[in-house]
Amino acid sequence: MEQIFAAAAPVRTIHVAVITGASSGLGRELALQLAADPRIDEFWLCARRSERLEELAARLAKPCRILAGDVSDPVWIENLKARLAVDKVRIHILVNSAGYGKLGSVEALGEELNGNMVDVNCAALVRISSVCLPYMQDGGRILNIASVAAFLPQMDFAVYAATKAFVLNYSRALHRELKARRITVTTVCPNPMATEFFDVAGESPKVAAFKKLGVEPVEGVAAKALRRSDQGKELSIYGAPAHAIRILAKILPHNFILWAEGRLGM
Ligand SMILES: NC(=O)c1ccc[n+]([C@@H]2O[C@H](COP(=O)([O-])OP(=O)(O)OC[C@H]3O[C@@H](n4cnc5c(N)ncnc54)[C@H](OP(=O)(O)O)[C@@H]3O)[C@@H](O)[C@H]2O)c1
């Protein structure tokens, strides 16, 4: 007797872009520039301000999942893990842009702020990458947002600069580790950009000094980062001043750099 089985409809794999820090600045801009990428079917947008994420989702013209919450909250990480396990998506690109810096001496900022900068900029980024890696598509992309601050120690921005040095070194090693899976990790090292970053960082004469180093356009930083990522490059640095800072920080003794920062009010 002939038996006829209805052919199961092929299950289409959904290719996802997971973007943290999507509510503002560089993360938001990267999401907007990725909207037309045919390799992405769906966006997972992450940040604390859900209304901002909803506003972005309305502009992306692709399905979006909003994962609102604090990336350093273990409950939020568990939710991400659970969502990935249930949806069984493949991640085409992971963008770790959530981050912040507070200006001020280590002593003045105190335990809570110093510790939280490390939790958000470093620990959460590492946890999110670890949770996402099993779901990353071979040949996929990770963009980790560091800063030019990664290249040198900075007084009164000590913890922030150190968190970005961590992101840079971690990401470069991860880039090598993932070679066999053809997953590239591109570390983005912007100079100051006109985002909400300095509203959060706080008032300081240092801000004007930082901005004298050259304010980079967030659209240009994002476009270059995506281009470098597609080329499989491990670093994306936008402009000549940022390149110069990287080279000087390699050549000059860091004691001298700290002395010069003091003299220049940076
Ligand atoms: N702007 C600059 O001058 C500059 C220069 C070099 C590097 N960077 C780096 O670039 C990245 C993006 O910064 P930006 O310039 O775009 O600044 P921004 O406009 O202030 O954006 C920061 C993003 O991070 C999110 N975020 C911060 N803390 C979070 C937390 N605990 N949980 C979840 N999301 C959190 C914010 O969302 P919610 O507030 O909605 O949670 C926001 O979407 C950061 O890693 C920053 O360190 C910035």
Could you please describe the fold and organization of this structure?
- The chain is α/β, with parallel strands linked by helices and 266 residues long.
- The chain has a single domain (15-264), classed as NAD(P)-binding Rossmann-like Domain (Rossmann fold).
- Helices cover 49% and strands 15% of the residues.
- The protein has helices at residues 25-34, 50-60, 74-87, 106-132, 158-177, 197-201, 205-212, 218-230, 240-251, 254-264; strands at residues 15-20, 42-47, 64-68, 90-96, 136-145, 184-188, 235-236.
- It has a 7-stranded parallel sheet, sandwiched between helices.
- Strand 4 (90-96), helix 4 (106-132) and strand 5 form a beta-alpha-beta unit.
- Helix 1 packs across helix 8 and helix 3 packs parallel to helix 4.
- It is globular.
- NADP nicotinamide-adenine-dinucleotide phosphate (NAP) binds at residues 21, 23-27, 47-49, 52, 70-72, 97-101, 120, 145, 147, 190, 192-193, 195-197, 200.
